Amino acid sequence: MTTPEPPPPDPLVDREARFTALFESTHRPLLAYAVRRVTEPADAADVVAESFLVAWRRIDDVPAGDDARPWMFGVARRLLANARRGDRRRLALADRLRDHLTDVVPPPDDSGSDVERALARLSDDDQELLRLVAWEELGREEIAVVLGVSRTAVRVRLHRARRRLADQLAALQAPLKRSAAGGQVMSRWAKARPGIEEA
């Protein structure tokens, strides 16, 4: 008498197990990633929920192991970009009105550190790259996955972004003061050294 062969594994059960493991290993860092990029915590929760919806639909495309986290960051980044584009469209009229109010000078913004203000002066791409390094503590290969570019492109862009940040920081930290003798203008800080080394 032969024993019956076991039934084949249920692909739905396997998908659910993979998704559960993905959620358990990535939902906290993904939420932290989103919270730091939106103004309202509820918006971050929406981004995370949508990211996992994408992951469920594309579970077969999700990399295994440590590569899953940067893959999920890449999904969230695209969703955030789509949300920002939608916000920009909704606020287009208000932006146009603000552009016409050239006679109103806003008060200087003294909030935040010099680093935060220097970062705010950079392009969105530079800010995102530096935040992936500093906030998310991703390596170059992981950043390449998030941004959908090569590791070499990440290295070059990161070097340039750090340099631009240093230039902006030096500009913020160099208030001009007049010397007591002769009224000459002198800088309080030396200009940042060129060629900032990469971490």
TrEMBL record:
Supply the Pfam families for this chain.
Sigma70_r2, Sigma70_r4_2
Family membership, please give it.
Belongs to the sigma-70 factor family. ECF subfamily.
Q: Which UniProt keywords apply?
A: Sigma factor, Transcription, Transcription regulation
Q: Which organism is it from?
A: Promicromonospora soli
Example GO BP: DNA-templated transcription initiation
Q: Which residues form the RNA polymerase sigma factor 70 region 4 type domain?
A: 115-165
Q: PANTHER family from the xrefs?
A: RNA POLYMERASE ECF-TYPE SIGMA FACTO, RNA POLYMERASE SIGMA FACTOR RFAY-RELATED
RNA polymerase sigma-70 region domain mapped to chain residues: 22-89
What the entry lists under NCBIfam families is as follows: sigma70-ECF
GO function terms (MF aspect):
DNA binding; sigma factor activity
What is the protein name given in its UniProt record? RNA polymerase ECF family sigma subunit
